[in-house]
Amino acid sequence: MTAKTITEKILSEKSGRDVTAGAYVEAIVDSMVTHDVTGPLAIEVFEDVTDEKSELPTADDIVFTLDHHAPADGVEAANNHNILREFAAEYGTHQYEINDGICHQVMIEEGFVEPGQLVIGADSHSTTYGGLGAFGTGVGSTDLGTTFATGELWFRVPETIRFEVQGDLPDGVYAKDLILKFIGDVGFDGATYKTAEYAGSAIRELPIHQRLVLANMAIEMGGKAGIVEPDERVETFLEDQATLDVSVDPDLASDDDATYEATYTYEGSDLAPQVSKPSNPENAVDVDDVVGTGIDQVFVGTCTNGRYEDIRVVADVLAGEQVAPGTRLIVVPASKSVYEKCLETGVLETLVEAGATFQSAGCGACAGYHQGVLGDDDVCLATANRNFPGREGSMDSQVYLGSPATAGATALYGEITDPRDLETTRYGDHVSADVGVVR
Fold it and tell me: Which residues are in the Aconitase/3-isopropylmalate dehydratase large subunit alpha/beta/alpha domain (predicted)?
């Protein structure tokens, strides 16, 4: 049998055919998700293709979330919420309310994603699911609506680009820094309709919340999917997070002699914290190149870096300190459960006492809808995935992208700051910082 990548193995399994990159397949979809922006159109398409009221055999595989305009910021948004609520009540799909969380975080927390599965969503960051070893990808509302009816969708099996990082990552360097580095090296369209596969000893050592970051931002280099080989860490994570008893198939790994379109190799110890300058994620530079840039707002959150461990990093940096005068810090957890953990552990209290605004879970600030929109000439450093012109508000604002550690250090000083200057020490899954050492 031909040697295969993880992507080729998953799409072979889901199509019932032995396929490699370039083949076209009709594949069975395990789970699908949409939200209050893309969901109404998917429902409209479903109703058009079925042409009459019918049962929905895929109902248990469909997830709705109200996360973009949540809470509703206008009548149109409120009406869209009601469209999803009414459809879910009628057909029995899974439906999550405002503040339950961002769709990708909900999918993971609630156990809708397992290694080796094929998961689609009417949201480009559905690539996130590759952090668990699934093939996750974004599709249009039209494709999603037809998949509601059929449970299947056609794909071209993508080629794979391998990003291999060996050795240990230095303190202050995280998955966000890795993915910004990768995007900077290949360009914003350098992996168009390819799978970005992340491998090497440094990747294997990453906790799951950081692997999800790598998969999430594959789309920022044009990727059809991003994927990390699943292992026992995934099994433990899913048991703890979603109470799933999952055993990873060792054959799911890419074969040693699999064919890659390209391979990029890195030595972990050579890497530095990265920041993407406005207004494209591909504008990634070492943080030293932009240290001292004045910042009006720091935004921590999104489906990329809105998990508890990310927010905890920022709280560790700011514990007993204050956000710099003239700087706003907006913190938005990725889900209600993340919010609750921040509350239970004192992270929320630490951040509020430091001067942060802590908000309910959602996508509003990231997409520039509400809950932290930027004005003309505002400069922001965000843990988000995109910094296009107008992405978070005014077309005349500027957004830099960085890790939670960089965000915390920047909020403390009001200018882009190298987190390594805080003498951070890595332990567990987050950073503790002695913020009193360097001034």
Answer: 9-291, 294-414
The tokens for 291 are 């240290």
> What confidence tens digit (pLDDT) does each residue in 382-421 have?
999 999 999 999 999 999 999 999 999 999 999 999 999 9
CA count, 13 A, side-chain hemisphere, 105: 28
Residue 363 in marked binding region: yes
The Cα–Cα gap between 336 and 344 comes to 12
- Pairing status of strand 284-286 against strand 274-276: antiparallel
CB 152 within 8 Å of CB 28: yes
φ, ψ of residue 267 to 5 degrees: the values are -100, 120
Say whether 165 sits in a helix, a strand or coil: strand
State the virtual CA torsion across 155, 161, 166, 172 in degrees, nearest 10: -80
Task: Please give the structure tokens belonging to residue 316.
Answer: 């560790």
- Integer Cα distance of 168 and 177 in angstroms: 14
> Residue 398 in contact with residue 296, Cβ under 8 Å?
no
Non-local (6+) Cβ contacts of 388 within 8 A are 279, 280
Q: What is the DSSP letter of 191?
A: T
Output the pTM of the full model: 0.95
Known binding residue 342? Answer is no
Check if the beta carbon of residue 38 is closer than 8 Å to that of residue 177: no
- Tell me if 330 sits within 8 A of 372, measured CB to CB: yes
366 marked as part of a ligand binding site:
yes
Q: Helix (H, G, I), strand (E, B), or coil: what is residue 264? A: strand
Q: Please give the average per-residue pLDDT across 211-231, as a whole number.
A: 98
In the chain, the domains with their CATH numbers are 7-267 (3.30.499.10), 275-433 (3.30.499.10)
